[in-house]
Amino acid sequence: MLATLRTEIYLDSNATTSVLPAAIAAAVDAMAQCFGNPSSSHGAGLRAKAVLDGARASATRLLGVGSGRLMFNSGATEGIQTAVLSALCALRERRSRGEATGDLLVYGATEHKAVPQSLEHWNRLLGLNLTLHALPVDGEGRHDLAALRALAPRAALVCTMAANNETGVISDLAGIEAVLTETATTAYWLVDCVQALGKLPLELARTRIDYALFSGHKLYAPKGIGMLYVRDGAPFTPLIMGGGQEAGLRSGTENMAGIAALGAVLAALERGGTFRSHAELAGFRARLADSLRIALPGIVFNHAFAASLPTTLNFSVPGVASRALMDVFDAAGVRVSSGSACSAKAAAPSYVLAAMGVPDWRASGAIRMSFGPLTDEATIAAACARIARCGAALRSGGLLPLDGAPAAHDGAGVSRHALSCEAAAPAAHHGAEASQQPGATLPAPDASAPPADDAMRLAPAALTAFLQAHPDARLIDVRELYECAATVTPAPGGRPAISVPLGQLPGWLAQWRGKVQVPLVFYCRSGNRSLKAAQYLRGLGHQQAWSLDGGLALASPAMDA
Ligand code: PLP
Known about the structure:
It contains 19 helices and 18 strands. The chain has helices at about 20-30, 45-65, 75-95, 115-125, 145-150, 175-180, 255-270, 280-295, 320-330, 350-355, 360-365, 375-395, 415-420, 430-435, 465-470, 480-485, 505-510, 530-540, 550-555, and strands spanning about 10, 70-75, 105-110, 130-135, 155-160, 190, 210-215, 225-230, 300, 310-315, 335, 365-370, 420, 455-460, 475, 495-500, 520-525, 545-550. It is globular, with a radius of gyration of 27 Å. The termini are close together. The structure holds pyridoxal-5'-phosphate (PLP). Pyridoxal-5'-phosphate binds near residues 114, 161, 165 and 226. Pyridoxal-5'-phosphate binds next to helix 3.
C-alpha cells in the first residue's frame, strides 16, 4: 500500500462533511442493487420501500418524533420553505375566518439567512403583509428571552435555531419554550436543527416545536437529502404536489440514494460507537484552542465554549485580516472558513458576530474552524502541528510579532514546496502593511487592449506536457510569502518555483530590464492572482505568460487516504 502524505485537514464541517463510509455503501447499494421505486408494488419496489421505512423508523426513534410527521426532502432550505409556507398559509386562513393572529414574523438575529429570506419571500408572495422582526441575542449569542417575552403576544411565527452554524452557540430552547408557554402566544414555532443533529439530544414530540428541519450533509450524509418534522396538529401545506409520495406531504420520487445514506448515518447514531462523545469532542476543541493561542498571539474566541457545540471554534486575531488567515490556513492544507460558508467570498463583517455585539474588527476578521463527531485523534494532532506552522509563517511574513514566538514545527515534515521556492527579488520587502493586502493589484500596463483571458489559462492537466515542451519555462508563485512558507504540498509541475508576490511583480520584472525571454507560468491559490499576473505580462507585450487555471486548489492532490 502506498504511503500518502496527509495534505488536507478538513476543519469546515459546519459547511459540510465528508460522507460516512457506511453511508456511501448504503447509497451505492440503493443505486446498484436496491434501485426499485418505493412506490412500486413488485419485489424491487418493496425492497426499496423497506430501505425508506427503515430510515424513517430510525429518524423517528432518534428524534423522538412521536405522533408527529417526518418527511424526507432535499435539505434544510427546503424544510424552511415548507415550514414557513405551512405556517403562513395557516395564518392566512385564520385571518380570513376573522381570528386574531399576531402581526410579527420573529426570527433570531443569528439565524441562517435562509430563514429571514424565506419569511420575506413567502410573506410577500402570499400577500400577508406581516412584519419581519429580528429577535436580538445577547453577548454570548443566546436569544434575548426578555425581548421574546415582550414580542410573543404579537408573534405569528417564531423561528429560532438550535445551534448556530458560525459560532456553534447552543440556543436555550427550553427557555424559549417557557416564554412561549407563559405568554400563551398562538405563534407557530420553527426550529432549525441543522447543526444540532447528532450533537444535541432532541425529543421533538415532548416539546412545543411545530416544525424542525434537518440537513443530511452536515452530518456525514450526502448533499441533497434532509428531513422535516411537523408536530402532530401543526398546520401543513405541501411545497411540492404531484404523485403523493411521502404520504402526500412531499411529492416526487424519493431520493433513495440520499435516504439510504442518511438512514445509515441515523442507524450509526442510534447504535452508538461510531461518533465521538461530547467530552471527547470538547477535548479535541481544547487542544485546537491551545494550539491557536500559542500560534496566534492575542487571539480572541468569539463565543463562550461552555455555551457552544464542542465542534466549533470561531476566532479573530488582532491585526490579521481574515483573508490572510484563510490564505495561510489554505496554504497549510487546513480547510477553514471565514464567517459562514455562504459569505466566504465577501469581506463583509459576519452578521452573526455583529448581532452579538462583537467589535467590528473581530466580526470582519473572524475564522471558523469546525469538525465533526467522526474526527479522529490523528487529524487533531496534525491540525495542531499545522496551526503552529501557520503561526510561524505569519511571523516570518511580518503579520505577527516575533516576540515570544514558539519554534515552527510540523509533524507533516518540512515543506518541499517551501524549499523549492527561490528567494524573491532582493529588493523585496514584505512588511505588515503589504501583507495585509493579499491579492494586491498591479498597475495597469501601458498596452492598449487587454488580452483575452482564455488564451493565457493553462489547464492543470496540461502543465506537465507544457513544461516538457518548454524546458526553459519558469514557474512563478505569486502568493504572499507567508502563504509560500506555510505550504505543505510540492510546487506544481515538479519543478522549483520562484516566489514573487503579485504586488512585487513590477519590481521583479524591472530586474529583467523589460526583456523577459522565457515562458512564465504563474500560479497562486485559486488562479485569480496568477491570471492577473499573466494579464499584466501580456499587457506589457510578453506573450509567453500563462496562468495555471484553478491554481494549487486543482493542481495539488486533494484528500489524503
Ligand atoms: N440552517 C443552518 C443552520 C445551516 O448551517 C445550513 C447550511 O448551511 C442551512 C440551514 C441550509 O442547509 P441546506 O444546505 O441543507 O439547505
